[in-house]
Write a structure and sequence with these properties.
The protein is an all-beta fold. The chain has one domain (2-65). The chain has no helices and 4 strands. It has strands at 2-6, 15-29, 35-52, 61-65. A two-stranded antiparallel sheet has the order 1-4.
Length: 72
């Protein structure tokens, strides 16, 4: 899990996250031609920039990567 904090204004809840994602998707087209994504796997994700929504700062944003126990 990733959390962000803006050290300029104290914001902990509102951020614009710009990222680059490489993914594998299973797309299914029905007979009418409508496409739906049935499976998606994120292969790689890079966070390019995080911008605070309160003060528009990107230099003051601190990102914290936390390990999450998914067995709970």
């Amino acid at each position: 899990m990733t959390s962000h904090r803006c050290s300029a204004c104290g914001n902990r809840t509102r951020f614009d996250v710009y990222d680059t994602v490489r993914r594998k998707r299973f797309e299914h087209a029905d007979l009418g031609g409508d496409m739906t994504v049935e499976e998606e796997e994120i292969l790689d994700r890079t966070i390019d920039r995080v911008v605070c929504r309160w003060c528009d700062s990107s230099e003051a944003v601190v990102t914290d990567q936390r390990a999450v126990d998914t067995d709970r």
